[in-house]
Amino acid sequence: MPLVFATPEIIAAAATDLAQIGSAISGANTAAAAPTTEALAAGADEVSTVVAPLFSRYAQAYQVLGADMAAIHDQFVQALNAGANWYAGVESANSSTLQTVQQDVLGLINAPTQALLGPGLIGDGAAGTASHPDGYDGGFLYGSGGSGYNSATSGVGGGAGGAAGLIGNGGSGGQGGWLYGNGGVGGAGGAASTAGGSGGLGGAGGAGGDSEFAGGNGNTGGDGGTGGTGGAGGDGGNGGAGGAGGLLGHSGNLGLGGEGGTGGGGGDGGHWGDGGGPGSGSRRGMSGSHGSYGQPGGSGADGAHGQPG
């Protein structure tokens, strides 16, 4: 019995192309109708007056034939589109029926194993959910593990990927198959969230799973998160005290306060964080007090006796 293979998408595309060709031909016929169906005689002689109506009749007959061909062309395009839709409907019905049969057959095969051990013999594991973050394992004989759940809440870890069976790939973060298959990709590390002080260490990326026997190696884990920024430097020390006044005479001018101390060094940055900026200097010291007045001078000594004349 002969078999027919048809691709509905290709048939529909061909119908669209034919419709565009028909539109182009119809446009050309319309543009040529006026100058050809009403041809004027080239002169007043008898030959010209006979030839001009003959050309016009030929043009009118061509327009009638063109309209009939356009109608046949449109009918062919419609039939082609209907065939594409019919093939698509049959394909969809067959696919739905085959999927139902496939699910029924897999249900019969997997039912005993699922009742005893949990996972079935054949089939991929389901992805993790919020209530069950870890991905489900694939079938023991064949099937890939489900991906772990990715939480959108800060600080909540993602779920582990499900392991594959004898043949298959592990889910994201899961272990590869016992016989053949690659481990899933590890999750990305968490980022530090506290501002100032020592930066938090980046979270470690999840390790890719290894195959038990010969086959693909596990994929590399994700990169750690970025460390936080270091804290700001401390303030400078207080300025020196003002100088004391003189011992004698009027008291000296008030001493100016000492210069402010140098600002403290910036704090150390966290792991991969930036150090803090230097602290600001302190204000000037207080002015010195007035000096005390000097004591009165002592009495002069007695004069010496004069010499005899």
Helix content: 25-40%
Count of helix runs: 2
Secondary-structure class = mainly alpha
Tally of strands: 0
Order of helices and strands: HH
Low-confidence stretches: 187-228, 236-261, 269-273, 279-288
Choose one word for the global shape.
Answer: flat
Spatial separation of the terminal alpha carbons: 178 Å
Sheet with the most strands?
none
> Which value, in Å, is the CA radius of gyration?
50 Å
Organism: Mycobacterium pseudoshottsii
Protein name: PE domain-containing protein
InterPro entries: PE-PGRS_N (IPR000084), PGRS_rpt (IPR048996), PPE_sf (IPR038332)
Region (Disordered): 212-233, 253-309
Describe this structure in words.
The chain has 309 residues and is mainly α. It folds into 2 domains: 8-117, Orthogonal Bundle (Helix Hairpins), CATH 1.10.287; 119-233, no CATH class. It is 33% helix and 0% strand. It has 2 helices and no strands. Mean pLDDT is 68; it is low at 187-228, 236-261, 269-273 and 279-288.
Name some characteristics of this structure.
2 helices, Helix Hairpins, mainly alpha, 309 residues, 2 domains
At a glance:
The protein is an all-alpha fold and 309 residues long. The protein is built from two helices and no strands. Helix 1 runs antiparallel to helix 2.
Topology summary:
Blueprint: H1 8-37, H2 46-117
